[in-house]
Amino acid sequence: MDRSWMNLPDRLRSPAYAEGVNHFLTLARSHAMGSDRIRCPCRLCSNNLFLPFREVETHLFIKGFNPTYTQWIFHGEEETRPLIDVDSDPDLTDEDEYIDDMDHMLDDVWAGTFHNVPQGSQGDAIPTTSHPSVPETSCKPSFDQLLEDARRPLFTGCTKFSKLSFVVKLLHIKTLGGWSIKSFDQLLNLLRAAFPDATCPSSYEEARSLERGLGFKYHQIHACPNDCILFWKENADKNECPVCKASRWMSTTHGTRVIPQKVLRHFSLVPRLQGLYMSTKISTDMRWHKDQRVTTDTIMRHPADSESWKTFDKDHSWFAGDARNVRLGLASDGFNPFNNLAKPYSIWPVILVSYNLPPWSCMKDQFFMTSLLIPGPKSPGNDIDVYLQPLVDELVELWEHGLPTYDASTKGTFTLHAALMWTINDFPAYGNLSGWSTKGKLACPSCNANTESNWLKFGRKQCYMGHRRFLSPDHIWRSKKGLFNGKEDHRIPPRVLSGSDIVSQLHMVGDVQFGKSRRKRKRTSEELNWTKISIFFKLPYWSTLLIRHNLDVMHIEKNICDNIFGTLLNIPGKTKDNINARRDLEILGMRKELHLRHAGERFTLPTAMYTLHGEERNKFCEWLVEVKFPDGFASNITCCVSVRDCKISGFKSHDCHVFLQRLLPIAVGGFLRPDIALALTELSSFFKKLCSQTVDITHLSQLQSDIVIILCKLEMIFPPSFFDVMIHLAIHLPREAILGGPVQYRWMYPFERYLGKFKRYVKNKARPEGSIA
User: Fold this and answer.
1) What pLDDT shows up at residue 534?
2) What DSSP line would sit under 517-584, residue for residue?
3) Three-class secondary structure of residue 259 per DSSP
């Protein structure tokens, strides 16, 4: 049957598309055997979710059919395989059927690993992934073992699986199912007991050891316990830190120095980039951004549609000339893998992701590449540059000299180059990676020296208001005094700084390169908020990028949601409207109706219109508890609400994301004054449009104007203490979306989801640094 209807653009009005969907649902019902749920094959679900028939039909019309799902093997069709003519190849016998296509995969691995080695000399080859701190050994024995396991049947007479294919499928199911290592070992023990003749591995470690022939190893690099240096390159043979004189080794109970105090795990980027081109399908997808991306409209679907990407192509046309050159994004964050607050420990993974891949692949977990594991027990802070040295050196090498790489799709070799397009982190990590302190009166890195902030005497914090300067010059609100701070505001918006402007500012920074400074020092006025020169400026192209460090949208959403929740429900310790906030209003001469009312030695707080009281709070919490979501849509919103105490706590980033975009307009509509509810509803609508999967670039300019109006409305409603720097950062998000592409490819949610899985893995495997166990 012709299935070209699956790609029709006008799905809602196309009779051919409707007929195709009806044919698919009829086939799926006959295959469902009475069940009312089937796998949903839409573009988003991709056969991963079981949904009712009516929901599946709705998804197919609204979201579209997954264009790669052409054989409906999950809905009743048999999978067709290419026929093999045994008679035409006398060397192919029935005994070879159990190889399960592993030979083709290993051929690509062999070509990708030894593409530059003369025939017959592979036994003496040294892989290009060797590291100066690791003894150089040949990987041929382990590769030969892979080849042998690919040809060995799982048990005598088995024609379906080889040992290697069976283990690979088991490891794949473990990853998809989120199995723990303990449960995986228990399954292997059961299989070995039930099928004693099968050549099953005895443990997870033995199963993973079969992959050593692929070259995916990591290097251990010792580090100073005080984060001063790496014992690497010129410091490789030293036994103490030349900066702080701390010992490299940890003394054991026997007094010998054999255990390093701190170890950095470095996963070389080279074999991972080569691995992307060892698969025919993935290597084809790596050129999607140039060969198959739609470029005839103004819709932004991918980072390749962004201004930063296009400008980079113009500035470095030699790099853009080969679509196979890799563009990378970097994310990092710390977490405690042991869930023990009494024993704090912070491990920092550094993750890279390739933006060459199409939108439905580039943010999938399987394409996240772990580059570094920075050990604890504390956060590296500004000294994170010490640990980034191996990665930055690799990036410089890949930019300047490239890497000979085998392309399985063309069966040829090319020189692979790679570039880091930007980083994306939460706001504290933003400061560590960029070198711009995210605290103090100049906390906003976009406004830079022109950051508008005021110190609140009683609140003991900086507030960031003054958003009228972003309005159009003739806007009426610029002349309104009483509604704001009692003054007119006719200032122009802060100028957007170019890369050359940033470099000029960094020339004023003292001798504080990456590494630990020898003494605590106070920044001079010329240094602004710069604390160091970031190690990323060692990359030749870094200063030419339009955007170097992205703001994390979900982190901003969470902080805004916490501020709104705490103030709306007047939660002690979280509300932004307290006694100190009212005293600050008196000092600033703003909002006289909210000033403290003195009666002798006592005073009272006038009721604020943006705060719920008494029965309103109870009804709000009761409504929120009753909200139901589809499975997998939101995690723990209901369990975070306490009706009895009228408080909400424990919201995760994604819960705040869901509440702010979906529930806030409904929640405030029935409780707050219309003008307050309208401002919060517009804020919700802003984030909902900004976080869309696709966004029209012409609409982003409108969003930029909208957020200015919204923040000005909030300034007329909430006290100054409400406006921390996270509220202010929302004004820069539309511009960053224009420069960096759709928010969904830059935000931290995929990384946080990956970090959760990584945390569960480390919890099973890792111990605190220096632990003998």
Assistant:
1) 92
2) -SS--PPPGGGTTB-S--GGGGSTTGGG-S-SEEE-HHHHHHHHHHHHHHHHTT-TTT-S-SHHHHHH
3) strand
Triad 442, 446, 452: Cα angle to 5°: 40
Alpha-carbon distance of 146 to 211, in angstroms, equals: 8
Cα(691)–Cα(744) distance, integer angstroms = 6
Among 341, 347, 367, 343, smallest CA distance to 356 is for 367
Q: Is the pLDDT at 311 greater than 50, yes or no?
A: yes
Model-level pTM? Answer: 0.76
Residues 113 and 150 in one domain: yes
Greater confidence (368 vs 637) lies with 368
Asked if the model's pLDDT at residue 173 lies above 80, the reply is: yes
- On whether both 390 and 244 belong to a single domain, the answer is yes
Residue 753 has pLDDT above 60, yes or no: yes
pLDDT score of 27:
87
Instruction: Indicate whether 209 belongs to any domain.
Output: yes
Residues 360 and 403 in one domain: yes
- Banded pLDDT at 520 (limits 50, 70, 90): low
Only one residue has tokens 């296009």, namely: 310
pLDDT at 616: 85
Over the stretch 694-712, which tens digit does the pLDDT of each residue have? 889 989 999 999 999 999 9
663 touches 624 (CB < 8 A): yes
H or E, element range at 597 = strand 597-599
Same domain, 13 and 31: yes
pLDDT value at residue 85: 44
Distance CA 243, CA 260 (A): 17
Domain residues for the domain of 286 are 218-430+751-765
The domain boundary, picked from 22, 51, 86, lies at: 86
Q: Quick check: is 105 in a domain?
A: yes
Q: Is the model more confident about 102 or about 581?
A: 581
* 722 burial level (CB within 10 Å; 0-12, 13-18, 19+): buried
**68, 158: one domain:** no
Provide the mean pLDDT of the chain: 81
Same domain, 71 and 120: no
Judgement on whether residues 183 and 80 belong to the same structural domain of the protein: no
682 inside domain: yes
Last residue of a domain, one of 86, 114, 141: 86
Q: What angle do CA 514, 517, 521 make, to 5 degrees?
A: 125
449 within some domain? no
Give the list of residues 6+ apart from residue 256 with CB closer than 8 angstroms, or none: none
Nearest to 637 by CA among 623, 617, 651: 651
